[in-house]
Amino acid sequence: MIRNMIFDMGQVLIHWQPAVFLEREGIPETDRPPLLQEVFGSIEWIQLDRGTISFEEGLSAMCARLPERLHGAARDLTLDWWRNNLLPVEGMADLVRELKGLGYGIYLLSNAKSDLPRYFDLIPGSECFDGKIVSADWKLLKPQHEIYETLFREFSLKPEECFFIDDLTLNVEGAYYAGMSGAVFDGDMARLRRKLCDAGIPVRL
Fold first, then answer.
1. Confidence (pTM)
2. Which of 100, 116, 117, 145 pairs with 137 at a CA distance of 20 to 30 A?
3. What does the alpha-carbon distance between residue 136 and residue 26 come to, in Å, rounded to a whole number?
4. Strand duo 4-7 + 105-110: pairing
């Protein structure tokens, strides 16, 4: 029986679309490709999610590959992207609150940087979460088996009582390997609600 719902953050609770961020920030179109590659597509971005380098180290490496005129944008996109780009996924807060009202435990399992506490409370539905596992805090990344085991251990959860929602098939497969059931969210809320109902979770259709 499912008793706990586990949510990813990017592309589940909030939109994560770096190309859109650059457009919203007013970055000239010709400057967007290097920022996409050297910031969001960089090894340092992954290392920041894993918590193995500092923000200063990451930014220094990124900026070394970028022209000086883009250093300020790289800093803003790394440290403060959320100030202008925290865009909730439509309908997800309603689902989270509905599940909380039905008595389910609500947890976050996200590949994210150590600054998540600065902005998580701004995400609609965040007040419903009973606990969070953030990759940078544990120096682990989904779909490593150990990060799922950390979730279970830290919150005394039974894998078979958990249902995991993520936008990446590989991460959901990792959850299955760890003993959870789950669903890949592709942006279609109606489809996700049907998947939950199929799993015995009585949400509205």
1. 0.97
2. 100
3. 29
4. parallel
